[in-house]
């Protein structure tokens, strides 16, 4: 059981008999009252987001989340297809609403961790940083810094990212999957 102040970011809890992920957490004290933990929770099954305040006397059960390795296969009409790492015939699909926007930074045939609750897959855990090749990058024009010295490039997965002007086609760049932002050039 977790105390009210232990319900923090990226924890999985059982709330109203369903598993939730904590998206935001803020413990504060309002005037002379007891402390409160204001949280934003995402239902792992339906994807619904709710806000709830946990008081000092509240406790929450930690959800038992297990992981297993799966391989990302392809995208087809908004459905992302995966298979068991060891058994390619065991295929399943997940919607983008469950996976989040970070999935657009994952290459096909990449191995990721599937998150399971009671043997049902509800999402995947992606690496925080990935290295991708630049497929399209417009040429930098000398003196074109009115827009802040950045340009929009396309990566091998089809995702678009804003990068500095010196990034060229064929470069390999590191991307943060949580924020979707450029981190650095690798080569």
Draw up the topology in text:
Elements: E1 2-3, E2 12-15, E3 18-28, E4 36-43, E5 49-55, E6 59-62, E7 65-76, E8 79-84, E9 91-95, H1 96-99, E10 111-117, E11 120-125, E12 129-136, E13 150-155, E14 160-164, E15 172-176, E16 181-185
Antiparallel strand pairs: 1-6, 2-3, 2-6, 3-4, 4-5, 7-8, 7-10, 8-9, 10-11, 12-13, 12-15, 13-14, 15-16
Sum up the structure in keywords.
54% strand; mainly beta; OB fold (Dihydrolipoamide Acetyltransferase, E2P); five-stranded antiparallel sheet; 187 residues; six-stranded antiparallel sheet; 3 domains; SH3 type barrels
Please tell me about this protein's structure:
The chain is mostly beta strands. The protein folds into three domains: 2-62, Roll (SH3 type barrels), CATH 2.30.30.30; 66-125, OB fold (Dihydrolipoamide Acetyltransferase, E2P) (Beta Barrel); 129-185, OB fold (Dihydrolipoamide Acetyltransferase, E2P) (Beta Barrel), CATH 2.40.50. The protein is built from one helix and 16 strands. Strand 8 and strand 9 (91-95) form a beta hairpin. The longest helix has 4 residues, at 96-99. It starts with a strand and ends with a strand.
Distance between the termini: 47 Å
Which series of helices and strands comes N to C?
EEEEEEEEEHEEEEEEE
How would a textbook summarize the main sheet? 6 strands, antiparallel
Form type: flat
Any idea how many domains?
3
* Count of distinct strands: 16
Strand order of the largest sheet: 1-6-2-3-4-5
